[in-house]
Design goal:
InterPro entries: AmbAllergen, Pec_lyase, Pectin_lyas_fold, Pectin_lyase_fold/virulence, PEL. The protein is α/β, with parallel strands linked by helices. It has seven helices and 31 strands.
Length: 434
């Protein structure tokens, strides 16, 4: 009996020693991993975590990311709806699913540049440059902007990925003239550009604008404005567009909220091309989107623009978009309001409407989705406009035309359309994310 008791005590002591050693080892490993994580958090090298062999474990599960995703989903499901809206994924929206399913997207911000679709899919913005943190919301001197301001960031010659230190309300004295290879990334903060001049993209390439509230833009000009570190010049009066794209290419405008400006919300003219306008929320405006300078400006025949996953909401009247000459893919957008028409055009543009949801207004004289401005009666019948898989509600109707030439529509096709029944889910988070 005594021998058995001594053996039992000895086994207990051995077990206790093993437990203590395990806890000590786990604590050391936790401290070491925490130090490594802190080092990774302070690093500017994108995706360094995936290449760190020291953090691997020989007994890891086959798919650790799937396990982590399950745990993270269960945690998020117990939090408030606001957070769920921002971090939700697998929505069927290929842009959002590309980056929002990454729990560490803030450490991999530049991966956004790989998520674009449509004709502007090759716009890399400032992906290959360093980060620039905007710390100053001021715009006191458009010729000699202070370091730390948004204007100082966008005029630099080098590629830059521009982020914001905190929420900001920026009132620009003059047009914000961007230089090539820039990304404005307002994810995670609440940034308004309002009550002054707004954004000009002129004779440049590779621009990404993401996550801004742009509204109440006003005409400005007749002033000197800097466009690069080595150049400034006289600017005549600007129209007051939220975003003006002039003679530029490889442009991506995504997840912005735009409303109530003096002229257009987005204008792309003068030979601009390779453009994607996606996931934006448009409200309270008359002439929403203009694509093409004039009927006589034939250089706009090169224009290719994708309009995808946007929500055209309350208070809109016309031009969603209004097109000239080029090739336009209007795909999986949600049209819940117009007072005159949704899609218009002149000068024989090719318009490929696929998988959109069109909800006509109550006005019985404004049920038609389309409007044509033609030089002589009947000329529009030769223009290639088609509707494929669109959902037409409350009496909405789309007037198709043309010979449905496969080659023409191939140049107006930029991604595979999803079913119009999915539009509500795809566009549910359109606009600047909270």
């Amino acid at each position: 009996m005594a021998v058995a008791l001594r053996l039992s005590c000895l086994c207990f002591l051995q077990l206790l020693i093993v437990i203590v050693l395990f806890i000590s080892s786990s604590a050391d490993n936790s401290i070491e991993e925490a130090e490594q994580f802190q080092s990774l958090s302070n690093s500017t090298i994108v995706n360094r975590l995936s290449g760190n062999d020291e953090l691997r474990h020989e007994h890891a599960v086959d798919d650790p990311e799937a396990i982590a995703s399950m745990v993270d989903t269960s945690i998020r499901n117990s939090t408030e709806r606001r957070k769920l809206g921002f971090f939700s994924c697998t929505t069927g929206n290929p842009i959002d699913d590309c980056w929002r399913c990454d729990r560490h997207w803030q450490r991999n911000r530049r991966r956004l540049a790989d998520c674009s679709i449509g004709f502007g899919r090759n716009a890399i913005g400032g992906r290959d440059g360093r980060f620039y943190v905007v710390t100053d919301s001021g715009d006191d001197d458009p010729v000699n902007p202070r370091p730390g301001t948004l204007r100082h960031a966008v005029i630099q010659d080098e590629p830059l990925w521009i982020v914001f230190k905190r929420d900001m309300h920026i009132t620009l004295k003059q047009e914000l003239i961007m230089n090539s290879f820039k990304t404005i990334d307002a994810r995670g903060v609440n940034v308004h550009i309002a009550n002054g001049a707004c954004i000009t993209i002129q004779f440049v390439t590779n621009i990404i604008i993401h996550g801004l509230h742009i509204h109440d833009c006003k005409p400005t000009g007749n002033a000197m404005v800097r466009s690069s570190p080595s150049h400034y010049g006289w600017r005549t009066m600007a129209d007051g567009d939220a975003i003006s794209i002039f003679g530029s290419s490889h442009i991506w405008v995504d997840h912005n909220s735009l409303s109530n400006c003096a002229d257009g919300l987005i204008d792309a003219i003068m030979g601009s091309t390779a453009i994607t306008i996606s996931n934006n929320y448009f409200t309270h405006h008359n002439e929403v989107i203009l694509l093409g300078h004039s009927d006589s400006y034939v250089r706009d025949k090169v224009m290719q623009v994708t309009i995808a996953f946007n929500h055209f909401g309350e208070g809109l009247i016309q031009r969603m978009p209004r097109c000239r000459h080029g090739y336009f893919h209007v795909v999986n957008n949600d049209y819940t309001h117009w007072e005159m028409y949704a899609i218009g055009g002149s000068a024989a543009p090719t318009i490929n409407s696929q998988g959109n949801r069109y909800l006509a207004p109550v006005n019985p004289f404004a049920k038609e989705v389309t409007k044509r401005v033609e030089p002589w009666e009947g000329s529009w019948k030769q223009w290639n406009w088609r509707s494929v898989g669109d959902l037409l509600l409350n009496g909405a109707y789309f007037t198709a035309s043309g010979r449905a030439a496969p080659g023409s529509y191939a140049r107006a096709s930029s991604l595979a359309a999803k079913s119009s029944s999915m539009v509500g889910m795809i566009t549910s988070n359109a606009g600047a994310l909270s």
